[in-house]
Amino acid sequence: MSTPIRAIAAGNWKMNGTVASTAEIEALVAGLGSEDPGCDVMICPPATLINIFAQIALGSRVEIGAQDCHANETGAHTGDLSAEMLAEAGATTIIVGHSERRQDHFENNETVRAKAEAAWRAGLKAIICCGESDEQRKAGEALEVVASQVVASLPEGATPENTTIAYEPIWAIGTGKTPTAADVAEMHANIRTTLNKIIGDTANEMRILYGGSVKPANADELMSVDNVNGALVGGASLKAEDFLGIIAAYKD
Ligand code: 13P
């Protein structure tokens, strides 16, 4: 390993939050204050809240991201949003290929790759998600499945600056279940090796996040695992107090 990677705690609010939730962003901004929390901090609210959250977070330690985008810049795609639109609203990053998108919207690796490229086209960063199902883990296929998702979802031109990988085992999302620290270490090493094969040594600087039932109570353990460079947090990012409890894992 070369230079230490600065971690990020990223909150994915999924389809939760209304204008009333600005109170949580205000509390997060206030809770972080001006002192370095030891990691970067991001919230990805529903698209309807990106603009208002970005205004509240302006000049603070909190970045605002988006949860998905269409691959195209404009066009006849009812209900979709382009990366350029999300950038204009104030997003700095777009999560692509979340397992809920892969499942609910039948997104495949090719779609995910195109969406990551769209994020870059708009000058944004991409967080590319991967993760195995319970069945795949039980069948002993987890390492292979995730490696093949990474290979097929990562566009050419990926760098540590424009791309982050998020490993989220599907069975750990919203269930309260988490893999053991040893399983997380094994998977993250597997992802790092896979990235090394694709983009060489530069992959040693790429962030690999863990996501799936991260809570203040387990953040210390999960975030200290080798090759875990931050968290992608669902439920526990909705309340500033909980999210600050996770970020606290990075305070020295
Ligand atoms: P939970 O933290 O609610 O398990 O969700 C994880 C996730 O899917 C973040 O993208």
How are helices and strands ordered from N to C? EHEHEHEHHEHHEHEHEH
Strand % is: 15-25%
Number of helices: 10
Shape descriptor: globular
Please state how the strands of the largest beta sheet are arranged side by side: 1-2-3-4-5-6-7-8
Instruction: Please summarize the sheet with the most strands.
Output: 8 strands, parallel, barrel
**Structure class:** alpha/beta
Q: Give the distinct bound molecules.
A: 1,3-dihydroxyacetonephosphate
Rounded to an integer, what's the Rg over CA atoms? Answer: 17 Å
Kindly state the percentage of residues in helix: 25-40%
Unreliable stretches covering 5 or more consecutive residues: none
End-to-end gap: 21 Å
Kindly state the mean pLDDT as a whole number?
97
Please report the total strand number as a whole number: 8
Pick out its properties.
252 residues, alpha/beta, eight-stranded parallel barrel, 10 helices, 38% helix, binds 1,3-dihydroxyacetonephosphate
What do you see in this structure?
This protein has 252 residues and is of the alpha/beta class. Among the domains are: 85-131, no CATH class; 171-205 and 212-239, no CATH class. The protein is 38% helix and 15% strand. It has ten helices and eight strands. Strands 1-2-3-4-5-6-7-8 form an eight-stranded parallel beta barrel, surrounded by eight helices. The radius of gyration is 17 Å and the shape is globular. The two termini are 21 Å apart. The chain binds 1,3-dihydroxyacetonephosphate.
